[in-house]
Write a structure and sequence with these properties.
Blueprint: H1 8-32, H2 39-55, H3 60-81, H4 94-110, H5 113-133, H6 146-216, H7 224-250, H8 263-277, E1 281-287, H9 293-313, E2 320-327, E3 330-337, H10 354-364, E4 368-373, E5 379-386
Parallel strand pairs: 1-2
Antiparallel strand pairs: 2-3, 3-5, 4-5
Helix pairs in contact: 1-2, 1-4, 2-3, 2-4, 3-4, 3-5, 4-5, 4-6, 6-7, 6-9, 6-10, 8-9, 9-10
Keywords: ATP-binding, Kinase, Membrane, Nucleotide-binding, Phosphoprotein, Transferase, Transmembrane, Transmembrane helix, Two-component regulatory system
GO molecular function: kinase activity
Catalytic activity: ATP + protein L-histidine = ADP + protein N-phospho-L-histidine
């Protein structure tokens, strides 16, 4: 994968080891093998190939083509001018060869499969041209010996293998990043779903219950619907306020009134929640130990959802007991009703996400959640949340 947008600071951090290594090879080669009469040819070619190798992560295909053209052109020029070089056995200067190997590894790592294969062939062809054309000042047998060929193939395989290894590493890292992003998005969706369910279901259920109650007695008491209207209006306003708080929280604003500053405020919020629900609710709040504000919001949501479920599902309901207390490092929430069974068609329908959302909320906070029938009659919800997590 080509990365033409790679910034220069990032490129410098990634490529400084290669730049340092090529500089060291060039300095060693200049002091030991390059003769002064050929330095005007050897140094510029090696230096330019090194620069292109260092910059190649930005445009690996272009860098590969440029180095292939550079090697081929310089080889033709050296042949035409009959300038003998002190290149090593493969026909390239040592710095040139190191730059070619580095570019092959980078191209295999970043470019597409077809382009990478073509660039490897182009650089290989340029090396063969240099082997054939560049006059050598070293006496001895022809360069295309078995030893030279084996060395070249071995080093080429190492360069390609290095590129493939880092290519696989990059692919694994991208996959891990994509999975992390997907997991974070899924967690956000679940959190949003829980909040929407808790807020909307609670208030809308209350509105439906009061409206149905007023409708059922409208024939006997024509004033009942009018008496229910203020309650429905108040529930609607509360729903809008809660939705605005939720939207503000999602946008990063500080939510207002959704968390408790101290235990007294949390107790008041629980009491207000019970008054909004109405009906035969017996409330007990005993918060002897401090409850963190972020935990207080979850306590409110758990009580809210438990009351909503009781109003929606319980038949022949005469009592709901709500008990919230803190002791040691644990907050315990217990909501029990005495309903006789399950309604066939719950008020407002049922999405089946209430218990799931409460269990997820409790487990995310490191707590314990339990819900089920209470003996022969009623339903019980019990939650324990640690205050230290």
């Amino acid at each position: 994968m080509e990365n033409q947008s790679l910034s220069w600071p990032v490129l410098a951090r990634r490529q400084w080891p290669l730049a340092l290594a090529l500089a060291a090879i060039l300095a060693l080669e200049t002091s030991s093998t390059l003769r002064w009469d050929e330095a005007p040819w050897g140094l510029p070619v090696s230096l330019l190939a090194s620069v292109l190798a260092v910059l190649s992560p930005r445009r690996p295909v272009d860098a590969s083509l440029a180095v292939a053209v550079l090697i081929t052109g310089s080889s033709v020029l050296l042949r035409v001018l009959e300038i003998r070089t002190s290149t090593w056995s493969i026909g390239l200067y040592l710095t040139e060869f190191a730059a070619v190997m580095a570019i092959i590894a980078i191209t295999v790592r970043q470019a597409g499969r077809l382009r990478a294969a073509l660039m490897v062939l182009a650089l290989t062809a340029a090396t063969v041209v240099a082997e054939l054309l560049r006059p050598s000042m070293w006496p001895g047998p022809g360069r295309f010996s078995l030893t030279n060929s084996v060395v070249w193939l071995l080093l080429l395989a190492i360069a390609i293998g290095t590129g493939l290894y880092f290519r696989a590493r990059d692919r694994e890292r991208r996959t891990a990043e994509a999975n992390s992003v997907a997991a974070a998005q899924q967690a956000e969706r679940l959190a949003l779903a829980r909040e929407l369910h808790d807020v909307v279901a609670h208030y809308v259920t209350g509105m439906i219950v009061h409206a149905q109650a007023a409708e059922s007695v409208a024939d006997k008491d024509p004033t009942a619907p009018r008496a229910a209207l203020p309650i429905i209006t108040a529930s609607g306003n509360e729903a809008l306020t809660a939705m605005r708080r939720l939207v503000g929280s999602l946008r990063g604003a500080e939510p207002s009134g959704t968390t408790s500053k101290d235990n007294g405020e949390l107790a008041e919020q629980i009491g207000e929640l019970v008054r909004q629900v109405g009906g035969p609710v017996r409330l007990t709040v005993d918060l002897a130990d401090p409850v963190p504000p972020e935990l207080g919001r979850s306590v409110l949501r758990l009580v809210q959802e438990s009351l909503t479920n009781a109003r929606k599902h319980a038949v022949d309901l005469t009592r709901i007991d709500v008990d919230v207390r803190s002791s040691g490092q644990v907050v315990r929430v217990r909501v029990a009703d005495d309903g006789s069974g399950q309604q066939v068609a719950p008020v407002g329908g049922s999405g089946g996400f209430g218990l799931v959302g409460m269990r997820e909320r409790a487990e995310l906070l490191g707590g314990r959640f339990q819900a089920g029938p209470l003996g022969g009659r009623g339903w019980l919800v019990e939650v324990e949340l640690p205050t230290t997590r």
